[in-house]
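ping. complex inputs:
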Amino acid sequence: MNVRIEEPLHRRLALTDGEFATIVAKLGRDPNPTELAMFAAMWSEHCSYKSSKVHLLTLPTGGPQVLVGPGLDAGVIDLGDSLACVFKMESHSHPSAIEPVQGAATGVGGIVRDVLSMGARPVALLDPLRFGPLDDGRNRYLFGGVVAGISQYGNSIGVPTVGGEVKFAPCHSSNPTVNVMCVGFAPAERLLASRGGGAGDVLVLIGASTGRDGIGGVSVLASRTLEEDSHASRPSVQIGDPFAEKLLIEACLELNTRGLLVGLQDLGGAGLTCAVSETAARRRLGADLDLDHVPLREADMEPFEILTSESQERMLAIVRPEALPAVQQVCSTWGLSASEIGKLRVGSQLFVRRLGKVVARVPAVALADEAPVYQRPTGRPAALDSLLEDDPASRRMPVPLEEAFLSVLGSPNVAGMRWAFEQYDSIVQGGTVVGPGADAAVVRIEGTLKAVAVSTDGNGRYAHLDPYLGGAHAVAEAARNVAAVGARPLAVTNCLNFGNPERPEVMWAFAEAVRGIGEACRALATPVTGGNVSFYNESGGSSVYPTPVVGMVGMLEDYRLLVRSGFPAGGLSIYLLGTTLAEIGGSEFAEVVLGTVSGRPPALDLDAERKLHWFLGECARADVAASAHDLSDGGLAVALAESAIVGGIGFTVAVPVADKLPPHIALFSESASRAVVAAREGREAGVERLAAAAGVPIARLGFTGGQALEFAGLFRVPLTDAIVVHEGAIPRLMSGQHLSR
Amino acid sequence: MRPRVAVITFPGSLDDRDALRAVALMGGEPVSVWHTAHDLAGADAVILPGGFSYGDYLRTGAIARFAPVMAPVRAFAGSGGPVLGICNGFQILCEAGMLPGALIRNQGLSFICRWVNVRVEGTQEILQVPIKHGEGQFVASEEQLARIESEGRVAFRYCSPDGTLDEAFNPNGASHGIAGLWNESRSVLGLMPHPEHAVDADLGPTGGHHVFQWLLTAARERVPV
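pong. complex structure:
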C-alpha cells in the first residue's frame, strides 16, 4: 500500500499554519493558490522583515541630513546645493552559494535598480564579501566566481566598483556572505521619493520579458537554510543580462529627466507582486493588473509564476495616462519594451486578471504592510562566557615578533586585495578620486568640488564574541575610514547577515548587534537610512558569524583636500592618535599567530571615536596631514606597513613603551578609535595643536623614509619583502601554490 | 576655433560621457551622436568610445560594425578625417576592417583594470594611462604584424615605467606588446588604454593628453580657417 500524504500548499510555500489563518481572516475566505503564492512571497522573511522588524524599529533614522529614511527602495541624504545622495546595501548570499557568478551578478543588478528607482544615477558600487579559507578548493571556486560575477555585471553596466572588503573565516565555508552597496547621485528636485500619483495613473512595465527564472527566490532561497541538495535550487537563481540593465538605467534616467514619471519601482524579490502591491499600498490605493499584457518568455506561464517571477532587468514606472506615448517613445529609443500592464484605482484591492478573468483579489496593504511581526525568543549562548574569559593577552608569544608580523601582514584578511579589485572597472564615469583598497572610496560629484566618501565594514570575530560590540564597531570603523580621508560621516545603510532567526541564540545576537549599531549611530550622529536583513545563513549545522556589515557615507566639501593613506615622501613625522590598551581579544593577531578566536573584543568609547573623527576632518581641512590611515585588523603594525606599502616609502618608528605593554600587544592590539597620521613637512605643530584641541592622545612614533619597515629595537623588514608578503598572499592562495611546498 | 568632436553612443557604450567630458576639457566641442544617425553632425573628428556595445555578447564589436552610424564614420575616415577608437572602439574598428588584427580574451582570462605605462613609438615618450578590459589582447597574422611593424604603424606599446619593453609589463599578452595602432594613412587610431580617463590631474596622471592633442590637432587641420 502506498499512501502519499501531501503537505498543504501553504506549508509548501513556506507559510506557517498561523500565517495561513491570518490570511484567511484578512480575506474573509480561503485564498486561491495564486493569492496564496502572492502572500507567500510578500510575507517571506526576505520581503517582510517579520523577525527583524521589532529590532530595526529601535534604530535612529532621523537627522537634518536625511531626506528619505528607511522604508523605500533606498535611503537619501542631502549633500547641500540641491544635491542628493541615494544609497543602499543588500545581500545576495544564498544565490551566490548555489551559483556564484550569476548570484553575485544579479545582486549587483538588483541594488542598482533600487538606487535607480529613487531617480538617481548609480555612480558607485562596493562589495563586502565573506568566504571560507582559500586552502579549500570549493572556497576558491566561490570567491573566484563571485568576483567574476561582480566584474562581468558591474563592468558591463558602467557603474564603477570602488570598494568593499573581503574577509575569510571557516564558518563561511558553505555560507559565503555576498553583500553589495550602491550609491547614486540626483539633483534633489529629480528625486522620485514622493508618493505622488493617483487613481488612473498607468503602471508601465519596462525592460526584460518575464520568464520562469527566480520563482520562489525570496521564499525558497532567501528565507530558508540551504541544505545538502541545494544544487536542486539552482533554477531559483536568476540569470543576469547587464546589457539590458544598462539600457534600463539610461531609459529610466531619461524618463525622469524629462519629467515623465510619477514614480518608479524596481522589480526584485517577489517580482510584480511586490512592485505593484507596494506601489498601490504606499499611495493608499488599489490597482488593476492585467497579466495578459506582461511580455512573457513562455506563453503558458501560470498566473502565480508571472506574479512571483524574479526575472531581472525590469522596472515598473507609474505615469500619467497622457505621458504614455512619450514614455513608450523613450523606451523604444533604448530598445526596451514598455507595456501598460495596469492602473492604480480607487479603493484598496489589487485585482489581477488573466485571460479576462480575475485570478486574484487581495488588499494591497495586506500584502505589502500587514505581514505578521514576530518577537522571536532570544537567548544568550551559555558557552560564550568561557570564550570571553579566555583572554589571548595572557598567552605566551609562540614565535619571534618579525615572524608574527609577516604572518599577520600576509593573512588573507589583511593582505592586499588587488587580485579581486583589478577585476572591477573602478574608474568609469570619471568620478572616482580614490578607488578600491583605500580606507574609504571617494567619488566626486560632477560639476562641483564635493565628493562622497564611502566605506563598508564589519568584523565577524568581534560580533561572534560580543554582537553588541560587533555592531557598534562596524559603525565606528566605517565612520573612522570615512573620516580618515577627511570626510564628515553622515549616514549609514547596513546589511545584517545572520543564521536561522528561529534559534534563540541567533536572535539574541541579532538583537544585540542592532542595539550596538543603534548606540554607535546615535553617538556619531549618523542615522540609518535603510538596509537589508539576511537570515538563514547556515547549512550543514554551521552558521555564519553574526555579520553586521555597515556602509557609511560621508561628505568632503572639497575633494582636492582629501587625505590618502600612503606615505607620500620621506622625512615626515609619523604620529599615533588614540590610546592603545592590551586588547587583542578577537584580533587578527590572536587568530593568525595564537590560533584562537577568543577574549573580549576591544572596548569602544564612542566619545573618543567622535573626537578622532573631528581631528581627522580638521587635519584635512587645515591641510596639515600628508597621510592618514585608520587602525583596524592587525593594529598599529599593519597600519604602518600599509601606509608604507601604498606610498612605497619605508619608516623608522619606536613603538611607545609608556604604557608598559609587551611589544606584541603594542604592535597588534586592536584598540579602537586610533589612526596613524604623517604630518606635512613643517606642519607638525598644526597636527599636534589639532590633537590637543580635539582631546585626542597623540604620540610621535618616528619618521617616514628609507626602504625598510623599521621597528626600532625590535625588528626590521625590507619594504620589498613586505610588499611580496602583502600583495602576493591572495594570488598565491588563488593559484593553489600554497598547496605544494 | 574649437573643433567639433563626435562621440558615438551605441547601446551599451559606457565611457561615452567620459569621452565627451575629456573633449571639452581638452578644448574641443563635444557632440553626442546616436548609433542610428546617418551623419556625424558636422564633426571634425570622431571618437568610438569604450563599453560593451550591444552587450558584446557575440564577439566584441561584432554587432556595432553594422550600426547605421558606421557608414558615415567609414566615409569620414576614408576622406582622411581623424577617428579615435578607445577600447571597445578599437575592437569595433578591427571588426569593421578599418584597422588590422583583432582583440581577443586577455592572456590571464580575467578582466583587468589597472594603470599601465605605454611607450609612444617614434618619440619614445612614456604615458601613464589606465586599461580596463577583458578582451584586449591584440593579435594579427605574422604577415599583418610584419607589415604593421615595417610601416611603423604601432602607436603605443606596453612598457615598464622607464620605457623598457618587457613581457612582464604586457598586461594582456598582446602581440609585440601592441597597445595602440594606426591605419595606413595615420588618420585612424585604435588603442586599448583609456586616454579619456587620464586627462584630469585631480584624478591622476594625465597621459591621455597626448592622444587628445593628436585628435584635436588633426581635427583643426580639417577646419577651414
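The longest helix of chain B spans residues 209-222.
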